[in-house]
Amino acid sequence: MKDLKQRGSLAFERVTKRYGKSVAVDDISFSIEPKTLVTLLGPSGCGKTTTLRMIAGLERVDEGRIRIGGRDVTELSAAERDVSMVFQSYALFPHMSVAENVAYGLTVARQPKMQARERALDALTLVGLADLSERSPSELSGGQQQRVAVARALVLEPEVLLLDEPLSNLDARMRTRVRDEIRDLQLKLGLTAVYVTHDQEEALAISDQIVVMNRKKIAQQGSPREIFEAPADEFVADFIGNANLVDGEIRSTDGKIANCLISGAAVDLPYSGKRTGAVRIALRPEAIGLQVADRDTSLIGEVSRATYLGREMQYTIQSELGELFVVCHRLDQIFPRGAQVGLQLKAHGAAIVGARA
Ligand code: ATP
After folding, report:
1. What residue owns the CA closest to ligand 1's atom 14?
2. Of 53, 257, 276, 334, which is most buried by a Cβ count within 10 Å?
């Protein structure tokens, strides 16, 4: 029985998927609230697409259970699940018009032709393409084709909408546009959506929650802000924030704030643990300020690369902490290659990410 209150919720309970002897997804559990957009984010091969395909029923689960809307769907075929998927490659039928492509799923479900067409036109109106309904897919731009693919998925009014890297064939400007359109539609229609990407900025921009995957497991689940500001480990800090990972030491802690030393410089960082001693600290590129080196500066470095990008400067700095990647949005003082600089560590943008071996 479907529970209407849970409609659109999704849960993975200790799910494992193997291809032969190799594990593609390793004992993962997570849950998704109805009407939210959740991204599965991670590097190539981490198991995102396999996870999405298991939700769709396109891959069988070896161990564990999957629930959609509270209902156990683990053993159900793709056709028996109330989900639809938008693929990276659009997968439109070239010999059908745009309207026929969108109506296709409804015709297969034996809806009367007129009614299917009407609903297809409604879905095309939602994605702003009603005017192009009689064209063939080859007469559309990449962005328009992907909107047709979204309309084709939406017309089925799925309980969960699945999107597999839907923007990766679009150029940078179109990617931002279609990304924002997908998010607006999801919010407007109150859809539950699961969205696979390997692009951290896309995930931060579009998600209510991000599930970060690494090596077939879940590294962290949280809101974009939680993931960015309080990464659970070194992998998440590096993957999401391009953080510099350095050695540090907790001198004292009150269970909320830890007083840390990083190469002689003191900085207070959020910390809920009790331990003192050696730790690894993630410093985001924006968390390191640069100034003219003087006698009072405790941390000194030398600029080995300075790149002007209009809105920001990007520096590579050689220091006693190792090589650091630094981004400065203040452009009133630009340091050239070879300059000696004082490094100032800012608490916002730094996080303790684990004990040091
Ligand atoms: P990408 O971003 O490159 O698509 P991904 O995170 O989506 O990567 P998956 O495609 O889910 O990763 O793959 C997870 C693991 O399972 C990889 O090691 C991959 O090589 C393996 N794998 C995926 N599909 C198959 C298959 N059909 N047969 C054998 N191994 C597979």
Report:
1. 47
2. 53
DSSP secondary structure of 47-104: SHHHHHHHHHTSS--SEEEEEETTEE-TT--GGGSSEEEE-TT----TTS-HHHHHHH
- CA-CA distance, 77 to 191, in Å (whole number)? 22
CB 248 within 8 A of CB 77: no
24-53: burial string, b at 16+ Cβ within 10 Å, e else: bbbebebebebbbbbbbbbeeebbbbbbbb
pLDDT per residue rounded down to tens, the chain (357 residues)? 455 667 899 999 999 999 999 999 999 999 999 999 999 999 999 999 999 999 999 999 999 999 999 999 999 999 899 999 998 887 899 999 999 999 998 888 888 888 999 999 999 998 889 999 999 999 998 889 989 999 999 888 899 999 999 888 888 888 898 899 899 989 988 999 999 999 999 999 999 999 999 999 999 999 999 999 999 999 999 999 889 999 999 999 998 999 999 988 888 998 888 889 999 999 999 999 999 988 777 789 999 999 999 999 999 999 999 999 999 998 889 999 999 999 998 888 899 998 765
Evaluate whether 241 touches 254 at the Cβ level (below 8 Å): no
Closest ligand 1 atom, CA of 47?
11
Superfamily of domain 4-229: P-loop containing nucleotide triphosphate hydrolases (3.40.50.300)
Ligand 1 centre and the CA of 196: distance in Å? 13
**CB of 197 sitting under 6 A from ligand 1:** no
- Superfamily of domain covering 242-355: Nucleic acid-binding proteins (2.40.50.140)
State the span(s) of the chain assigned CATH 2.40.50.140. 242-355
pTM comes to 0.89
Residue 15 alpha carbon to ligand 1 centre in Å: 15
